[in-house]
């Protein structure tokens, strides 16, 4: 961990997590003004996104679900182009056609955002099969929720990836909720990773609010996949601190449960770790906050001032 501090990784990870959090809050704030698309945020899950992504390499490919902003930004996506995409602007990563629920960023290796719950699981398995057949290097990382893990497609995907020895890192972000249903009502096992053994796949659960733990677990998983060519299931235990979608006020959530998880906020935790370990003091943290706020202001300006696509663009890239 000391090495992390020395080379500035901890500060860089904190900056990314702050940027993701600020971006998600900005989208909710813009939504309150009306006339803005509804999105699904992963507020509170920043350590999982940043920790996993920090252990992946350039040749690796990523598929994700409807809570994708953190994954995209942790991979290096610019907040301005992401926001422009959500707003349907021409400067967005998909020319404004995908919104937040279907975005892909080819140059960053992010192949898919699926709003079909579990859709990313079978497609990631297929991408891994193609990688294997074409003898391409790299692993395929697939982010999904505990709700997706309760669907048949999760079990079919794990089974096939194991039977065919495919290089997939299945990352279940267990945020304790499946839309408006607590995961306790939908599954009897405590951990999604318990299911892995049934498919002869290694499974590990890690504290998803501890960015260092997530990174270390991902490094181990990726090492295993690169060495054996076989799949691995990593479960990051975390919590969705905001509603299912941007207008959801979470009235159905137990207040004590929410308060307990707020106290385990991954950003507060990393701030304290950074202070204790020394790369930044209070003034340094304030300067970091200001830098992030400036980046988000610029992203907002860029997206708002960007033009909408020409009508002619409607039929470009349409394959069917
Ligand atoms: C196939 C399918 N069924 C239902 C939905 C509606 N839906 C959207 S998100 C969601 C909950 C998914 O829960 P989980 O996989 O745990 O992800 P989380 O939202 O908690 O990140 C549901 C049921 C959908 N989009 N697709």
Structural classification: alpha/beta
State mean pLDDT (0 to 100 scale). 95
The gyration radius over C-alpha positions equals: 19 Å
Q: How many strand segments?
A: 8
**SS element count, helices:** 12
Quick overview:
The protein has 320 residues and is α/β, with parallel strands linked by helices.
Question: Secondary-structure blueprint of this entry?
Answer:
Elements: H1 2-6, H2 9-32, H3 46-53, E1 61-64, H4 69-74, H5 79-86, E2 110-113, H6 119-134, E3 140-145, H7 146-149, H8 152-163, E4 168-174, E5 177-178, E6 181-182, E7 203-207, H9 211-228, E8 232-237, H10 255-262, H11 266-277, H12 282-305
Parallel strand pairs: 1-2, 1-3, 3-4, 4-8, 7-8
Antiparallel strand pairs: 5-6
Helix pairs in contact: 2-3, 2-11, 2-12, 3-9, 5-12, 6-8
Bound molecules: thiamine diphosphate.
What would you note in describing this structure?
The protein is α/β, with parallel strands linked by helices. Helix content is about 45%, strand content about 10%. The chain is built from twelve helices and eight strands. The chain has helices at about 1-5, 10-30, 45-55, 70-75, 80-85, 120-135, 145-150, 150-165, 210-230, 255-260, 265-275, 280-305, and strands at about 60-65, 110-115, 140-145, 170-175, 175-180, 180, 205, 230-235. It has a six-stranded parallel sheet with strand order 2-1-3-4-8-7, with helices on both faces. It has a two-stranded antiparallel ribbon with strand order 5-6. α2 packs across α3 (about 45-55), α2 runs antiparallel to α11 (about 265-275) and α6 runs parallel beside α8 (about 150-165). The protein binds thiamine diphosphate. Thiamine diphosphate binds near residues 116 and 117.
């Amino acid at each position: 961990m000391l090495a992390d501090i020395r080379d500035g990784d901890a500060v860089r990870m904190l900056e990314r997590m702050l940027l993701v959090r600020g971006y998600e809050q900005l989208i909710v704030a813009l939504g309150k003004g009306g006339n803005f698309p509804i999105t699904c945020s992963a507020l509170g899950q920043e350590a999982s996104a940043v920790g996993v992504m920090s252990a992946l390499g350039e040749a690796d490919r990523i598929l994700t679900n409807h809570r994708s902003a953190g994954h995209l930004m942790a991979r290096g996506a610019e907040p301005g182009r992401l926001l422009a995409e959500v707003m349907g602007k021409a400067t967005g990563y998909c020319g404004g056609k995908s919104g937040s629920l279907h975005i892909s960023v080819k140059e960053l290796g992010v192949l898919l955002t699926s709003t079909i719950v579990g859709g990313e699981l079978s497609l990631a398995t297929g991408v891994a099969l193609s990688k294997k057949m074409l003898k391409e290097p790299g692993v395929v990382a697939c982010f999904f929720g505990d709700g997706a893990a309760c669907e048949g497609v999760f079990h079919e995907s794990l089974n096939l990836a194991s039977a065919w020895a495919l290089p997939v890192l299945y990352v279940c972000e267990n945020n304790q909720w499946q839309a408006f249903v607590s995961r306790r009502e939908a599954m009897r096992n405590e951990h999604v990773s318990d299911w892995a053994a049934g498919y002869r796949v290694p499974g590990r659960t890690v504290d998803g609010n501890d960015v260092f733990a997530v990174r270390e677990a991902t490094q181990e998983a990726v090492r295993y996949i690169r060495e054996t060519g076989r799949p691995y299931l990593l479960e990051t235990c975390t919590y969705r601190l905001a509603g299912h979608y941007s207008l959801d006020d979470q009235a159905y959530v137990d207040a004590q449960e929410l308060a307990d998880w707020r106290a385990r906020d991954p950003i507060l935790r990393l701030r304290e770790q950074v202070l204790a370990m020394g790369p930044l003091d209070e003034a340094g943290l304030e300067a970091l906050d200001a830098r992030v706020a400036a980046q988000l202001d610029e992203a907002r300006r860029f997206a708002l001032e960007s033009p909408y696509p020409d009508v002619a663009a409607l039929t470009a890239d349409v394959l069917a």
